């Protein structure tokens, strides 16, 4: 009987013909008809370009790019002509050959008292110089003259991943950072610039609950921390709110008194299955949120916040989800309601509509990496984690004209335009005019026009 089965299998294989050749991965190239690539600035190869930030005033056409590893520092690019970008300034940490670590992935510009500044995060390993440095602040008011860029402050608290400048409803300009440790630091920017770093630290946003440990991708346990933060005024609740993405998922606080944030709720997808959040942003009216955990096979998730806020209970189930490719992952995103602009690693720039938050739809894309699948950070040794961490790193949008800037870990800075998207104002969508782009002079746009 066994011999008959073997003979039958052999005859079936012969009848079926030769086995098909193993499929060769196809590199993703080009983009959709609605997305026009305006320019590209290469930046020295693998993981040398990280986060970026674009100034919002057309009279100041500057984009800031964080540089990493042996290029750690930042680059300033002039986009006066988006089709002909010009690098006008480069700064690097001194003695980089002695440093170990990424060097700080993120940076953000801000304006206070009529002058412009750039906050560059710092993250080096404990054995390196500057290991205790968290942030370096530069004045950039004098651009485009590069000789007028000058360092004005250094802030301790090493290992800072992310900084978010926020114009609070009480008039203060705050810098929210995510250092090593189970909290986010809150600084009064004007006090830092006055040289009083100790007085400048005015509060901390804790990682709440029992998330004192967080499982890393290699299976080990590490201390709780935040990766990103996002702050915005909630015009319905009439509160400043800060949202932390990190250990335990996504956490929301009443931030009306920055010295003592009040915990509101936690969004933890899968009833606690997710060990850590990466990026979290909220719609202008505070009703919906977009969350990302930066893991292969996990989509970007859309949550409804209002029930959780009203009933003071955790959110465990998203109402919608989106991914460019189920084999990949996404890194960060910017929300300009109803559009989500996604830096989607191997899948480059992705633009998604949340007109129906329960059924997100892709409206445009452009592939910037042109890299082989799963050849990113960690390589094939970690096939379900950081091997897809390659490609699009960060994205930002200039509200005045809709200009889109994106960095790619491998290929540098890219500039795009989405047909039909010529600027953003929440009022055009019957929403408050609130986004990550701050109104430095007017304050939270939920309060003033």
Folded structure, characterized:
The protein is mainly β. The chain has a single domain, classed as 7 Propeller (Methylamine Dehydrogenase, Chain H). The chain has four helices and 30 strands. The strands form eight sheets. It has a four-stranded antiparallel β-sheet with strand order 1-30-29-28, with no helix packed on it. A hairpin with a 3-residue loop joins strand 29 and strand 30. It starts with a helix and ends in a 31-residue tail after the last strand. Mean pLDDT is 87; it is low at 1-24 and 211-221.
Q: What keyword list fits this structure?
A:
Methylamine Dehydrogenase, Chain H; globular; 449 residues; four-stranded antiparallel beta sheet; 4 helices; 38% strand; mainly beta
Furnish the topology, listing elements before pairings.
Elements: H1 2-16, E1 35-41, E2 49-54, E3 62-67, E4 73-78, E5 86-92, E6 107-112, E7 115-121, E8 133-139, E9 150-156, E10 163-167, E11 173-177, E12 183-188, H2 189-193, H3 197-200, E13 201-206, E14 213-215, E15 221-223, E16 226-234, E17 239-246, E18 249-254, E19 262-267, E20 279-282, E21 288-292, E22 300-304, H4 306-311, E23 320-322, E24 332-336, E25 339-343, E26 349-353, E27 361-366, E28 392-397, E29 404-408, E30 412-418
Q: Using DSSP, what is the number of strands?
A: 30
Helix run count? 4
Structural class: mainly beta
Q: Give a short account of the largest sheet.
A: 4 strands, antiparallel
Q: What is the strand content?
A: 35-45%
| Oligomer kind | single chain
Our count of domains comes out at 1
CA radius of gyration is: 23 Å
What portion of residues is helical? under 10%
CATH class (first level) name: Mainly Beta
CATH topology: Methylamine Dehydrogenase, Chain H
Q: What characteristic shape results from the CA principal axes?
A: globular
What is the CA-CA span between the terminal residues? Answer: 84 Å
Overall average pLDDT: 87
Instruction: Name the CATH superfamily assignment.
Output: YVTN repeat-like/Quinoprotein amine dehydrogenase
Low-confidence segments: 1-24, 211-221
Could you give the order of strands across the largest sheet?
1-30-29-28
CATH architecture: 7 Propeller
């Amino acid at each position: 009987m066994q011999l008959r089965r073997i003979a039958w299998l052999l005859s079936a294989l012969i009848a079926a013909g030769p086995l098909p050749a193993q499929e060769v991965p196809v590199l993703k190239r080009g983009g959709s008809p609605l997305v026009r690539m305006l320019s590209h600035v290469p930046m020295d190869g693998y993981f040398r370009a990280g986060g970026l930030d674009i100034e919002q005033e057309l009279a100041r056409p500057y984009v800031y790019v964080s540089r990493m590893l042996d290029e750690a520092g930042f680059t300033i690019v002039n986009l006066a002509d988006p089709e002909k970008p010009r690098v006008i300034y480069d700064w690097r940490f001194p003695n980089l050959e002695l440093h170990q670590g990424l060097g700080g992935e993120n940076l953000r510009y801000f304006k206070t008292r009529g002058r412009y500044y750039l906050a560059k995060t710092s993250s080096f390993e404990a054995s390196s110089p500057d290991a205790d440095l968290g942030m370096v602040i530069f004045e950039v008011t004098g651009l485009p003259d590069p000789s007028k860029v000058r360092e004005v402050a250094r802030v301790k608290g090493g290992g800072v991943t992310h900084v978010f400048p926020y114009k609070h409803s009480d008039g203060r300009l705050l810098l929210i950072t995510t250092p090593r440790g189970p909290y986010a630091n809150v600084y009064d920017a004007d006090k830092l610039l006055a040289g009083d770093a100790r007085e400048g630290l005015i509060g901390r946003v804790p990682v709440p609950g029992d998330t004192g440990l967080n499982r890393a991708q290699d299976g080990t346990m590490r201390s709780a921390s935040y990766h990103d933060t996002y702050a915005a005024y909630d015009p319905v609740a009439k509160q400043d709110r800060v949202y932390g993405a990190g250990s335990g998922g996504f956490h929301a606080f009443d931030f009306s008194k920055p010295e003592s944030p009040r915990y509101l709720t936690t969004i933890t997808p899968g009833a606690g299955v997710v060990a850590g959040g990466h990026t979290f942003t909220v719609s202008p009216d505070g009703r919906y949120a977009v969350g990302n955990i930066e893991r292969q096979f996990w989509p970007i998730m859309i949550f409804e916040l209002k029930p959780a806020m009203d009933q003071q209970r955790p959110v465990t189930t998203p109402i919608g989800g989106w991914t460019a490719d189920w084999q990949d992952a996404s890194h960060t995103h910017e929300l300009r309601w109803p559009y989500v602009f996604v830096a989607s690693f191997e899948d480059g720039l992705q633009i998604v509509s949340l007109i129906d938050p329960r059924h997100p739809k892709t409206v445009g894309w452009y592939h910037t990496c042109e890299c082989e699948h799963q050849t990113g950070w960690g390589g094939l040794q970690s096939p379900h984690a950081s091997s897809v961490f390659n490609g699009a790193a960060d994205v930002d949008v200039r509200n005045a004209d809709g200009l889109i800037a994106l960095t790619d870990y491998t290929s540098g800075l890219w500039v795009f335009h989405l047909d039909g998207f010529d600027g953003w104002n929440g009022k055009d969508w019957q929403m408050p005019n609130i986004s990550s782009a701050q109104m430095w002079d007017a304050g939270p746009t939920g309060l003033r026009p």
